[in-house]
Amino acid sequence: MNLIKEVLLFIFCLPSYITRFLKGLRIFSESYSQLLKAWEENERVYKSTDLGKLKDPNKTTEFVKNNRNEALRLLREHEKMFNQLFGIFIATAALIISLVALILK
Questions:
Q1: Pairwise CA distance, residues 87 & 16, whole Å
Q2: CA atoms within 13 A on the CB side of 67
Q3: 78-88 burial by CB neighbour count: b if 16+ within 10 A, else e?
Q4: Distance of CA 64 to CAs 18, 38, 55, Å?
Q5: pLDDT tens digits along 35-72
Q6: Cβ distance 17 to 92 under 8 Å?
Q7: Are residues 71 and 35 in contact, defined by beta-carbon separation less than 8 angstroms?
Q8: pLDDT of 82-97, one tens digit each?
Q9: Rounded to whole angstroms, how far apart are CA atoms 62 and 10?
Q10: What kind and span of H or E run contains 50?
Q11: For residue 24, is pLDDT > 70?
């Protein structure tokens, strides 16, 4: 009886798990596209800046380096988020497989 209760609870919650995973995947892809845009903008600014004509090239160089460091930090955070999302996917898949194995047993 307890097994049936657990199976029904899992089946009832499965759409919620899948919806949350897909929502996380959408947020991940949107943030990744924004990160790529920021990275390309940073590269464009860095390449288009002529440091020899500026009054204070040190400040400009520092600004560009800070932007690049921020983009790299965001990229690392994005990779962590992807790893967590992938972990959730694997855990959900393992739960489904174990449930199917339990039912077939």
A1: 17
A2: 17
A3: beeeeeeeeee
A4: 41, 12, 15
A5: 778 777 777 776 776 654 556 667 667 777 777 787 78
A6: yes
A7: yes
A8: 787 777 778 778 877 8
A9: 53
A10: none
A11: yes
Q: How far is CA 50 from CA 4, 44, 64, in A?
A: 70, 12, 12
Q: For the chain, what are the domain ranges?
A: 57-105
Q: How many CA atoms lie within 13 A of 69 on its CB side?
A: 6
- Tokens found for residue 35: 């990160």
Q: How confident is the model at residue 99 (pLDDT cuts 50, 70, 90)?
A: confident
- Cα distances from 8 to residues 13, 21, 102, 105, in angstroms, run 9, 20, 13, 17
Q: Which one-letter amino acid corresponds to residue 46?
A: Y
